[in-house]
Amino acid sequence: MPISETLVAGLGNPLMGDDGIGPAVVARLESGGVPVGLRAVDVGSDVSRLAHIWDGEPSIWLVDAVEAEKPPGTMVRLEHSQLVALPGGQSSSHELSVSDNLRWLLHGLPDLRTVEFTLWGVVPESVCHRPTLTVTADRAVDNLASELLRTFEETRLKGSTFKR
Predict the structure, then answer these.
(1) For the domain that residue 86 is a member of, what is the CATH number?
(2) Could you tell me the pTM of the whole model?
């Protein structure tokens, strides 16, 4: 039996400005008190760490900075089918995209194939050597943390986090 219903996995490097959006969302969730049934973990910039962090949760929400043709600070949400259908974007075998990493994890760990993945992203304003978020990203982190909590509670009220 999993210890939680949903794992929030914050992805990114907090030393690279707005690339640290994922870990910042995890920190905000933890500072406000994570509700029972939700587990938040800073995964760093390596999606493959999910193999060691996942504890049987039926739902994993990946939180990351995402490139999109939208203004900085805009929230983007990709459901499971959209996420696994993203084209590969690696430039070398050492720099796999989130979707490429996810496909490898699903291939190597068949138990993860039952998990419903969702990518929650924020369009970054600036990704550079800087140990803080921009004001725009910081505001978006608050909004996204609130949205995750709201969605989690709504899902629990409906009776299940697993929709597939």
Answers:
(1) 3.40.50.1450
(2) 0.88
